[in-house]
Structure formats: C-alpha cells, structure tokens
Amino acid sequence: MPLPFSPQWKDKASGFFSSSGVKLKEAGQTAGTFVGEVAKDAKGNVAEVAGRVGLSVKSRWTLLQQPSTRHAMQERLIEAAASTGSILRKGISETKDKVAVGKTKVEEVAKKTAQKSKTIITDIERWQKQLNLLFQLSSVFGVPIEVTVHREESSRPIPQILVKCADYLVLSGLNAPYLFKSEGDKKVIQQLVSSFNLDSNASLPDGVNPVDIAALVKCYLASLPEPLTTFELYEEIKGARSSINAMRNILKKLPTVNFMTLEYITALLHRVSQKSLLNKMDAQSLAMEFAPLIMWQNGQKPEYYRQYWNDPRTGQNGTDKAPTYSAWDMLAEEDDTAVASSMIPLDDGTPMDFGAIEVVQCLIQHHNAIFTDANETVWR
C-alpha cells in the first residue's frame, strides 16, 4: 500500500504552507515599513525644526552683537523671541500632523494584516482537516475494523496487523514470560504504530521483542472505536458466559469481520495459555488482560493505550515510562511459585468488569467448542 501522502499532495501542501509563511512575513514587513517611515518622517521633521530654530537664534544673536541703543536692543530681543516661538509652534504642529497621518497608516496596515492573517489561518485549518481525513483513511489504529479489512482486500476478514503479530508470536514468542502482561518498550511500540499507520501492509522488523509485539496487539484492539463484541451485544454475550451453546449462538450475531477476528485472537490466546508453565500466562491471566480490550460498554473505552497512537512524541525520552506491569498485578500473590492467576473474589464495587473477564476466559478455555462452525484457526 502506498504512503498516505502522494508527491502531488506533499508538493501542494508544502507550497501552501510556504506561501502562507511568506504572506505573513510580507504583511509584517509592510507594517514595519510604514511604522519606520512614520518614525523617520517625524524624526526628520523635528530635526528640521530644530535646525531652523538654531539658525534663527544664531542670526538674532549676530544682530544683538551689533552696536545699538538700549531701546533698539530690547526690540530685537522681543522680535527674536516672537519669531523663534512661531517657528517652534509651526514645527510642532507639522510634526503632530505627520504623526497623526502615520498613526492612521499603521492602523490601516494592522487591520489589513489581521484580515490577511485570519484568511491564512482559515486556509491552514481547512487544509489540516483535509490532510487529517486523508491520513485517517490510510491509518490502521483508531479506524473501524471493517474499514481496515475492506481496504486491505485480504483473503481473510482479519486485519493484517493482527495476522502478522500472531504469526510472529507463534513462531518465536510463546515462551516469553508474562506475554501480553508486560507493557514493553513504549518507544518501540510507538514506532511500530507509526509504521502501520503509514502502511497497513508494513512488516515487523526482525528481532523485535515478543513482548513489544504482544503490546502492539493490545494497542490495536484498544484503538478500535467499538469493541469486537460490539456495544449492541454486550449484555447478551455477558449473560451467556455460563453456557457454551448459548455463547456460540449469540456470537453468530456478530458481523463477520468481528466474529472472525474474535475467533483469531482467542485462538492465539488459547495457544499462549497452553504454554503457561513457561510464559506464566494461563487463561484467566490472559482474560484479565484482554477483557477490557475485547468487551467494554459504550463510554468505557480503555483510554490508557491512547498514549501510543494519539501523540507519538509523549514519553519517548523515557521520563514518564509506565510501570512494567498493569494495575492487576496488585492482586497477584507475592510468591513467584504461585499459579499465574489465583482466584479473585468478586467485588461489584470495583471498576473491573468481572463478567467480561469470565466471557473472555470462557472463549479461551472452550475456544474449539465455541467456534466449531467458524473454521477455527489451527496453529502450526
């Protein structure tokens, strides 16, 4: 799949933002030039007035030095003071007029600059919306699962990112301790998210830690606008958790993409649970990790994982690194020899959805019986 931005889009966008910057710079320079001219003009006018006053005083002083009577001297002083005052008043008046004109020019330029800036900002916002829409249409994370599957035109109605992650884990990662429980390297996960958002057919790099791949799976499921079990069937699926037959029949109501992806994910988790002696993740431990990602009610979306795909810059310096394990580890036994998931007493006062956990645990433990009609995944 090509990158989301074609060269034509890139050139057009680059040209737009470049021209916008030039326009803003020109507007600023124009305003600055007018202000500079006004200040220069006023300064020159004051200098001119001062020069004229200086010449006048000098000429009067020359006259005063000439021999004369006391009366004539007094008249010359009065005449000199009057003419000098007149020159000063005229010069100050001219300066005020020029400053007023300059102020008007500055206000006009500021008004035009503000209007031009507003127009440019509006254009930038419009372009940003168009580019965001284009990017969303090419992304994987945060996009409805049916849109991703339809766009990929795969032979199986399952997002390719899940297929590639599952294949990677089955081949080389099932024995990793606390698989799907450890949160992995945030920076690596963010790079993988960016890679698949640019190209949904991207490949996983060789040598990536299986823990990071497992975390990528969780990030993808958490980014879906609606869970795999859908909002509509939440109560029905939750109510059927004690009956395999009832669960099988209700899951058939799911859209094909949701049903096949749910089967694929729970098949992978079933495979992981078969290696629980090595990876310390049995069905209950896995259910506790995946229940909030597979089954949630409207308005209760798991927001923690948003940090990985919503703002790639957050946390890359490691200053706000999340804890190695999730909050559910607080319920674990301190003894390392204990079973991976001990029995937990139900407590309706906690935010944890134990009903959803029981559903996912049922799907993992009884996967083959529940998905018998789904041509379920068989791992090599």
Keywords:
0% strand, 380 residues, mainly alpha, disordered N terminus
Short description:
InterPro entries: Rho_GTPase_activation_prot (IPR008936), RhoGAP_dom (IPR000198). The chain is 64% helix and 0% strand.
Supply the number of helical segments: 14
Output the helix-strand order: HHHHHHHHHHHHHH
Strand portion, in percent? under 5%
Please state the average pLDDT score.
74
The amount of helix comes to 55-70%
Radius of gyration: 38 Å
* Quaternary state of the chains: single chain
Q: Give a short account of the largest sheet.
A: none
Quote the distance from N terminus to C terminus. 28 Å
Form type: rod-shaped
Count every beta strand, where a strand is a DSSP E run of 2 or more residues: 0
**Which structural class do the helices and strands define?**
mainly alpha
Walk me through this protein's architecture:
There is one protein chain. The two termini are 28 Å apart. With 380 residues, this protein is mainly alpha-helical. The model is unreliable at 1-6 and 311-350 (pLDDT under 50). It has helices at residues 7-65, 70-138, 145-152, 160-172, 186-198, 210-223, 234-239, 244-251, 256-273, 276-279, 283-294, 306-309, 354-365, 367-370.
Which helices and strands, and how do they pair?
Elements: H1 7-65, H2 70-138, H3 145-152, H4 160-172, H5 186-198, H6 210-223, H7 234-239, H8 244-251, H9 256-273, H10 276-279, H11 283-294, H12 306-309, H13 354-365, H14 367-370
Helix pairs in contact: 1-2, 4-6, 4-9, 5-6, 9-13, 11-13
